[in-house]
Amino acid sequence: MPEEETPVGRHAPEGDVDQVDPDEIAANMRSAVARLRGQVTDVYNMVVNDRPRPDTPRSGQPHLNS
Fold this sequence. Notes:
Layout: H1 22-49
């Protein structure tokens, strides 16, 4: 195994880890939460309104309840 790879289950030697920007982590978390909120809203609307998700192409088949 090449030396630059870190074996699974072991930590990289001290000083080899890049510093992580807390603002970048916060931005990534806000983005992830926004995506999840959108997905939850889509599913809620699909269940409540008995409609397909907006990004799902319609199959052309009539709905069973219509």
